[in-house]
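Hi V.,

You were right to ask for the full record rather than a summary. Here it is.
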Amino acid sequence: MIRVPSYRSLSETDWDERIAAADALFSPCMLCPRRCGADRHAGKKGRCGAGKELIISSIFPHHGEEPPISGTKGSGTVFFSHCSLGCCFCQNFQISQQGEGEPYSEERLAERMLWLQGKGVHNVNLVTPTHFLPYILRSLRSAARAGLSLPIVWNSSGYELPTALAPLRGVVDVYLPDMKYGANDPARRYCNASDYVENNRAAVREMFRQVGPLKTGDGGITYRGLCIRHLVLPGGLSRSEQVIDFLAAAFDPSDITVSLMAQYRPMHRAGEFPELARGISREEYERVLAKAEQAGLNVFSQEYQRLDDSFCIDFTTRKNEPLTGR
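Predicted structure:
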């Protein structure tokens, strides 16, 4: 069965309205809960490190996402540079905090999306995209005009504002946000985001309102819905139980899909915090997994014994392929 992504039904007026709403949040910048107010049109950089230019690190078919996202042909990932959250232990710190990447025009991004489609991937997966929202919407409109017909995955830290998510209604079919913490104390300590929980929960509610439960079609590939990621930290620092309790209370648990990740490794600045200086134990992970399953959530789990450092991408050497194959 052929399923048509939501954005294929948008009129030119619909696109204009969404782009105008995103532009209004861009400068002074109010795109994330930091609300830093940076004059990005004048080249000033926000708290996230992003300025006037659209900066992208890498674009390629990725086979390491959740099974219904990567499938058999891969997920067409677009790794945007910079990040509004800035976790001290980020595995993608080269792009999120060190700014690895290069300037892109909206036209070039649209071409790359079409190139990914030509590669046969299952979706276009926008990774840490929010601070470039207006550019992305204009690129998507251009790509759709030229024949893009893949679902759009919005893959974010979950540190979002409903006002910034609103222009994505009818554009994004699959939301893949993090719920990093169940309490604000660790968010303040490790991300300097003492308001993470309330903003994260409001964002997840808005995402669910837009797309609903995760749905899969032919071959088990998702075409719509919400999948929440949660990285288990050592010593219960992520307050995983509180994340699970919230989801079970705020939604019908059978409607919620959670990807529980065991892949934490001390990276970037994690060594500055003694409690983060080790990986998690099998027992720590299995305790959270059991809690999520007992709560009635749909769970994707990782095989603890197979984890190594292969999930880490070196973005200083990861280069894009030439524009061929479409």
